[in-house]
Design brief:
This protein is α/β, with parallel strands linked by helices and about 450 residues long. It folds into 4 domains: about 1-135, Rossmann fold, CATH 3.40.50.2300; about 150-305, 3-Layer(aba) Sandwich (Rossmann fold); about 310-380, Helicase, Ruva Protein, domain 3 (Orthogonal Bundle); about 385-440, Arc Repressor Mutant, subunit A. It is about 45% helix and about 10% strand.
Length: about 450
């Protein structure tokens, strides 16, 4: 695999070159994107690793030019300014993946090794095979947290190629954190519009004025609809758009025309992928969502189930996130910890699971993750439904009852081991023993 590294930071550039060469990669490293373009004209490279912030040419402009002139090359971008928007922009213009500074050479080498395994080809393959291999690698990198063996997820996977090619508007229903935006990006990047813009707006929590300005623009600034022209407009939480702005959006879609100023206008050619946490059909019934707009947007409805309804996928997701957050020193996890994480209801869905695994890896000392490492908030029993309880009459009764339930639960989980039970609840052993003695006559220690 022949690699070109472009980074204006000389020390980083040379370090990457030397470390990659020690790992048997054929590497040339330069500090200027202009020199990089010259080298790409002179000889073939399999992979380009480039910074995004460079004085002579911005990395995104460099990426666009490289992919236009050398569409078969695989591009990895590195940046200290990584954000969701930066990553999506880089992917949209053809990058395979991105890596955030500061990073070790080992992290980049691991990414290159994974790329080699995804491609499954040698450097002698012809251009058509290279194109197919790189596109497959890009598609697999996009799925990320959309992984699993559950029937619900597999059904969505099977539909993605056909849905992507259809060019019809889509609504993705589901709770927050289920991967709706990732699914939308995946569909766009497998569609015929993949080389055109993917422009996003999240309407949740935004004021009417901000939504209107962002969607339709003002005289001094283009709106998201105009920016997405010929590409895809991703509207997250479309159910949050106020009624009068729903009417304005419907009007623009019906006219297929957008006024730029008092005298000029442009035709609109966009695909809309939107998301909703609520059932829009029910909102139509109560006059909270315009029926005609609903039918415009809801051509292809998809539903991403919450994580609690696909518990069988949780172990796979745990392994996936462990691979992401501990690439250089793989961290294992004990089955008891996997079982505990699987039993948790995950109100924040996949996003919450990802956050927890990152936290566990960050504080890990190098050993396998155990039951005792799991954060206390994930070990608590389900909240008591006080409205259905008749024998609790005061705040102190509630505290005593909850404390007793926690002590009982911890003792059952540890088979009566007081030291482990105290650690499970993050309590001092002496404090736990005092609490245990206080409630001993009322504890339920049966499994």
């Amino acid at each position: 695999m022949k690699i070109l590294v472009v980074d204006d930071e000389k020390l980083k550039c040379m370090t990457l070159r030397d470390d990659l060469r020690e790992s048997n990669y054929d590497v040339i490293a330069v500090e200027s994107p202009l020199i990089g373009l010259q080298l790409l004209q002179q000889e073939p490279f399999d992979v380009l690793v480039t910074d995004l912030r460079m004085p002579q040419m911005h990395g995104i402009d460099f990426l666009k030019k490289v992919k236009k002139e050398h569409p078969h090359i695989t591009v990895i971008v590195m940046t200290a300014y990584a954000s969701v928007e930066t990553a999506v922009e880089a992917l949209r213009f053809g990058a395979y993946n991105y890596i955030k500074k500061p990073f070790s050479s080992g992290e980049l080498i691991l990414m290159l090794e994974k790329l080699k395994s995804l491609r499954g080809k040698t450097n002698k393959e012809d251009h058509s095979e290279k194109t197919k291999s790189v596109e497959t690698a890009q598609e697999q990198s996009l799925f990320q947290t959309l992984i699993g063996n559950s029937q619900q997820i597999q059904e969505i996977f099977s539909q993605i190629p056909k849905i992507s090619a259809a060019d019809s508007n889509i609504i993705i229903y589901g709770e927050e954190g289920t991967g709706k935006s990732l699914l939308a990006k995946t569909i766009h990047l497998q569609s015929k519009r993949k080389h055109e813009p993917l422009v996003s707006i999240n309407c949740h929590g935004m004021t009417e004025e901000v939504i209107e300005t962002d969607l339709f623009g003002v005289e001094t600034r283009q709106g998201k609809i105009q920016l997405a022209n010929n590409g895809t407009l991703f509207i997250a939480n479309v159910d949050s758009i106020p009624s009068h702005l729903q009417a304005k959006l419907l009007s623009k879609l019906d006219d297929q025309n957008l006024e730029l100023n008092n005298s000029n206008s442009t035709d609109i050619d966009i695909r809309i992928i939107s998301t909703s946490r609520e059932n829009l059909k029910e909102k139509v019934k109560v006059k909270e969502f315009i029926e005609d707009l609903y039918y415009q947007l809801n051509v292809i409805p998809l539903f991403l189930p919450p994580l609690r309804e696909r518990k069988g996928d949780i172990p796979m997701l745990i392994t996936h996130f462990l691979d992401i957050f501990s690439p250089n020193q793989p961290i294992g996890i004990k089955q008891e910890a996997v079982t505990l994480l699987t039993e948790y209801p995950w109100p924040g869905n996949i996003s919450e699971l990802e956050n927890i695994i990152e936290r566990l890896v960050t504080i890990n000392s190098g050993s396998d993750i155990t039951n005792e490492d799991i954060p206390i908030e994930l070990k608590l029993p389900s909240p008591q439904k006080f409205e259905q309880t008749t024998n609790i009459t005061s705040f102190h009764d509630i505290i005593r009852s909850t404390e007793r339930e926690l002590i009982s639960w911890a003792m059952r989980k540890t088979d009566g081991n007081k030291t482990r039970a105290a650690r499970l609840l993050s309590m001092k052993p002496s404090t736990f023993r005092d609490a245990l003695a206080k409630h001993s006559s009322q504890l339920d220690l049966d499994n």
